[in-house]
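Minutes, methods subgroup
Present: GH (chair), OT, SY

1. OT presented the first of two proteins processed in the latest run. Sequence and structure tokens recorded below as shown on screen.
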Amino acid sequence: MLRYHRVEQGTPEWLSLRLRHFTGSEAPAMMGVSPYLGRNELLRQKATGMVPEVDATTQVIFDAGHAAEAAIRPAAERVIGEELFPGTCSRDVDGLPLLASLDGLTMDGSIVWENKLKNEETIAHIAEHGEPPLHHVWQLEHQLLVTGAEKALFTCGTDGEDFVRCWYESRPERREAILAGWKRFAEDLANYTLRPDEYEFIGVAPDRLPALHVAVSGRILASNIAEWRDRTLEILAGIPRDLRTDQDFANAEETIRWAKEALDRIAVVKDAVLAQMPDVEQMFRSLDDIGEALGRTVKDLDGLVKVRKDNIRLEMVQKAAESVRAHYDALALELGAYAPTMPSALLAELGASIKGTRTAKAAAAKLDSAVAQAKIAADRDADRLRTARRLFADAAARVGVDLWPDGPALAQTMDEDALLGVIARRVNAHRLQGSRPTSKASKTLSLEAICARISPLGITKAGLAQLGFAPLPDGGYLEADFPKICAALVATLQSAAKSEMADAA
């Protein structure tokens, strides 16, 4: 069922929606053809919710894209002959939560529109092949899959007077490939194990050869370079690389600033020496040694700070998720089949909760709050499911038979009023059927016979029970009830259609 979401692109609500779905812009990375993002990095982002912050350069590109979209929209509408509406929609396909954020969709949903900023490679590819490059193709294929549209108009440009366009229609082999790709991705995501990043230290070159000697007139009158070098190298050797606390990170960042200042001082000294024109072979060698050591330290610590910060955040998110998971496990021991289901996007949502935090302390506070809210939600679901279990148990005790084999599944999706309605209908149907004759003279239908009559549709015993038709002692159903079964099916289908229309509105 296609669902439309009334969210504005770029808002926190939209970002949260993207976190819980597989999106069109992620399809190229999932298929391994994105020039901007690798599949493994996409897995990591979806698993942890940790998405890189949008920097100033990227924001400029985003803003340019929005401006180009607005400028080309009237021209795209003239090409299509219909008005285009931006929007966000989702559909579950074979259990996959798919989402598409559309530049434009026609009112009848038959055509989608996607615009990209002017790019010479894209323009050349369209001219040669009649379609966009493959990384754009997978986004279009995804959009057609989600919306059910017949075709897509692809444009590339910055304004309504200067753009190229082409039409794209889904191909069976590509539709099959993208579905298989998302299924594989979903399985990999479910089994994803967070692996800390590793930082590759900068290698130290062998001892340098002595410098070529050139004799010139002049000499160094006084210098403490040798002592300065020895003291600097001694300090650098004592700098810790195992960063754990906020204080460790603060010390490391201060050391980076200190090292950069020292590098600047070396440059100043070199300039001063050159101005005096002495023979400074040994001085330059000492300064170069110090400079190389300082440079290695800056790069090492820069890398260590970044990697260790990321790893600490991942460890914190994992620990928070384990706390919530343990809470769900405890509820599962108590409630069994009626236990609440832990959200599949929990880890990603916890990771997203610490986005923008600068210190481990701030991240921990955000995670504590997110964990508390997750447990509150679990307890709220558990209370509702306990009530459902009690309602079914009490009704079964009154009737003397369990008419709700699908009770746990019903309880997951229905509120108390809806469950009471199901209970009442099945109890009434059971009592009514119990009062009817069940002799051989009463014609009965097997479940298989009913399915054959309503083919190509089908139904299960649980489905018939949900409609209010419990089986007879011999497992069959009264022939006389078949028209009522058909009427109940029609009513259910009409209700689903009305619900879909209401969601679309």
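2. SY then presented the second protein from the same run.
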Amino acid sequence: YLLDYYVIDSRPAECQLLPLSWISLESILFNKFNKNTDIWSFGCLLYELFSLGEVAYFGYSSKQVIDSVRSNLMPPQPLLCPNGIYKLMCKCLSDIPTLRPNIKHVYEQLNLYSG
């Protein structure tokens, strides 16, 4: 279970565990957190919502998750996920932070699917 989490700071008083599959590559490699890394995490949330709770990269080791993210390997499209949402999800999960959409674009795209 603990292997599914990433340690942000190794000092005991500062130690924070974050779910590895929800952390962008730049956060893992450079401890960098910003709007682009938040969009990455939102892409992970979309995946879990449309896969009914399945975690992206489930069953992968920590190294395999990092290698997959580094290679821009996307999790498969969930069966219940419309193509447009999956495209948005993949943009959110881009390995290049500047290619990820901003939150306004995400909002506009999701609004296309609201009733």
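Chair's summary of item 2: The first strand starts at residue 5 and ends at 7.
Next meeting: continue with the remaining queue.
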